[in-house]
Amino acid sequence: MAGRGEWTRALIEHQGDAWEAAASAAGALPAGPMLFTGSGSSYYAALTAAAIGERLGLAVSARPAADLATEPTVALAGIETVVVVSRSGHTTEAVWAAEAAAARGLFVVAATCHPEHELAARAHAVWAVPSAEDDTVVMLRSFTSLLVLLQTAVARAAGVANAPLAALQRAWPTWRERAADWLEDPREAAPRRAVVLGGGVRWGIALEGMLKATEMSNQVAQAYVPLEYRHGPWGSLTADDVVLVLTQRATAVHDRQLVADLTRRTPHVVVIGPEAGDGVVRGPGAPAVRRVHYPAAVDDLWAGPLVTVPLQAFSWWWAMASGQDPDAPKNLQPVVTLDA
What we know:
- The radius of gyration is 19 Å and the shape is globular.
- 41% of the residues lie in helices and 16% in strands.
- The protein folds into two domains: 156 residues, Glucose-6-phosphate isomerase like protein, domain 1 (Rossmann fold, 3-Layer(aba) Sandwich); 153 residues, Rossmann fold.
């Protein structure tokens, strides 16, 4: 019998093996305004892919699936294509979203691990990655794989070819060792609270990191856009909290100052970002921060699947340190189903 947390740990360490299949499952996106949607982790993958598409000049946005179910006239105004993301393929809001879009004559794409489930039956096109299914409550391999799928589709729509997958594949073997370091040596006391900071194409990843930490550990985690954190939330930060900062080259100047300020409030600061150009001060007298860097050859735009992994590893460690079982989080089910 597997020990506490062993299945989740194995998924975190080996999820990169599913990314090639995920990229291969991506189909063509029709021209015209697109909306990416989902619930929970699936929505955060959709939000990340939409943010990338915006930066590539595509007419793409993201909304939670609940918006399409409750206010379809508002949520679907001006949209021609809806991509519904759902690991299980039968999350209630995802099915409702597909039905709402189809009822208005829109083109519906299902991105899922289960092409046999009801979401796929309501879609015009199905992008399926069965090998990415986790068989867990929380999304791990399925999240990064579905994100790879969405990024590949967005890249193709913008004429970027297959560059995103190639860079991720080259980086994965080394990154797996760096990102999973928390599984062996957390070098941290269990925090009172975790805060994940990320903006732009990292906002969805920050939300996913917050959700993973909350789901696995049953503790309190928060997510903010980095500079927004300097407002009200800043006042509650203590030395018992850990802050994980998702840096990017484009935000290096602001990241440098933010990290320096954070280290004056807590000794538990982690920087997850590019190997070079993150702007964080190094050398004698520099703030003592823990760094997890992906290779400089990986463009910040496509690094979301890599950045997610140390957030998952931290969440696993926090759950274990808190006496929880990441394989069986409290009060949660793998799929949310609602009454009509």
